[in-house]
Amino acid sequence: MRTKQRLTAQDKRRGAAIVEFALVAPVFLTMITGIIELGRAIEVVQILTNASREGARVGSYETTTATSTITTTVNSYLSQAGITGATTVVSPNTPSGASNGQQVSVTVSIPFASVSWLPSPFFLGGQTLSATSVMCRQPAPQ
């Protein structure tokens, strides 16, 4: 003789909760991943902005004659923030070529994939983050 099992209301509800979780979990995890990536991108862009500003500040002094001085300043700032491998472009290429009042531009860029906290960036993987600062060349501070 076969016994019939009856599903109670609690058993039916437990099954509905599992189905609801299966539908909501991927959407929730995708949102969390996006928030993590976007937050890290905003943080790195702010660090790049500060580094380019420091480089432009050093490049604006009339005593700065070599691009390597600016690049060293930028890389030092970035290494303190735990970022390595950034590209620095200085214009004009030799800051000593700019006279007082002319602009010195410093652009710092890095691929997002090399600074992401996730093993494989989902949304911003192919993007390059960059920041540019421009300052006028001025006499050295006293």
Please specify the SSE layout and strand pairing.
Elements: H1 9-59, H2 67-80, E1 87-91, E2 103-111, E3 128-136
Antiparallel strand pairs: 1-2, 2-3
Helix pairs in contact: 1-2
Assign an overall shape.
Answer: rod-shaped
Class based on secondary structure composition and strand pairing: alpha+beta
Helix and strand sequence: HHEEE
The strands making up the biggest β-sheet line up spatially as 1-2-3
How large a portion of the residues is in β-strands, by DSSP E? 15-25%
Structural domains: how many:
1
Integer average pLDDT: 87
Uncertain residue segments? none
How far apart are the first and last residues' alpha carbons, in Å?
A: 102 Å
Largest sheet: 3 strands, antiparallel
Helix content: 40-55%
State the total count of DSSP E strands: 3
